[in-house]
Every structure is written in C-alpha cells, then in structure tokens.
Amino acid sequence: MPARVILDRLSVVPIMNYLYSLYDALVSISVPSDKARAVVDAMERDMGTTLATKQDLLQLATREDLLATKQDLVHLKQELTGTITELRQEMVNRFALQAQEIATLRTDVARDMATLGLQVTVRLGSMLVVGFGLTLAALRLWA
Fold it and tell me: Are residues 38 and 83 in the same domain?
C-alpha cells in the first residue's frame, strides 16, 4: 500500500476518535443527542475546510524548493539585465548611425541645391541674352 494512503488513513482515525469522544462528552453533560450531533457535524465540517491534513502538508513546497526558485529568479534577473544592457547599446549605436546618415543627407541636399541654383542662374542668363539678342534683331528689321 502506498505511503500516502497509509498517512491519510492514519490521519483520519484520530479525528474520528476525537469527534466520537466529543459527542460522548456532550451527551454525558446532558446536551440533547441531536444538538450534540449538530456540534460534531459542525466541527467535522470546519476541520475538513480549515485544518490542513498530512496530504495537504506534503503538497506544500519545501524550503529547498523556495530557495531554488529564488536562485532561478536571481539568474533570470541577471540574464534580463544583460539583455537589456545589450539592447540599450544596440539602440545607441543605431541612433548614432541614423544621425550620421541624416547629416550626410543634409550635406548632399545642400550641395545639390547649390548646383541647382547655379544651373538655374546659367539658364536664366542664357535666356536673357537670347531674348535681348532677338529684341535687337527685331528692332533692326523694323527700322
């Protein structure tokens, strides 16, 4: 027979003996039988819901289990701290790279704008020269 079954049966026997003794004691001091039975039933119900049995105690975690869990949590905290530090450094590196790329783009845009400004100036000047030349030619033909 398994050890738990033996423990359960052994823990039930003293409780039952206690309840019978309580019933006998109440009846011996002239408590009516039905009221004594009600008291014993109430005690039995309370004991079943309030008190821990040996089986309940066997299911509780031991101190070693709690220490192992605590050590696991400490280890997990260290891993997470390391991972967070790595992620933070990676983000800083990426932000620095993005800032560098933005600065390069600004320089490129400024250079392109200067080039476009020069091209517009040259085209506008060329158009003015051509327009002025055409105007002079038209005046010579009419005069």
Answer: no
For residues 8 and 55, is the Cβ–Cβ distance under 8 A?
yes
The tens place of each residue's pLDDT in the chain, 143 residues long, gives: 333 333 344 444 555 676 778 788 888 888 888 888 888 888 888 777 777 777 777 777 677 878 888 899 999 999 999 999 999 999 999 999 999 999 999 999 999 999 999 999 999 999 999 999 999 999 998 87
DSSP state of 52: P
Cα(20)–Cα(14) distance, integer angstroms: 10
| CA distance readout (Å), 62 to 58, 59, 76, 108 | 9, 9, 21, 68
Is residue 11 located within the same domain as residue 47? yes
Whether residues 104 and 142 fall in one domain: yes
Report the alpha-carbon distance of residue 125 to residue 117 in Å, rounded: 12
Phi, psi of 140 (to 5 degrees): -70, -35
For residues 82 and 129, membership in a common domain is answered with yes
Do residues 72 and 141 both lie within one domain?
A: yes
In this structure, the answer to whether residues 47 and 90 fall within a common structural domain is no
State which residues form the domain around 48.
1-60
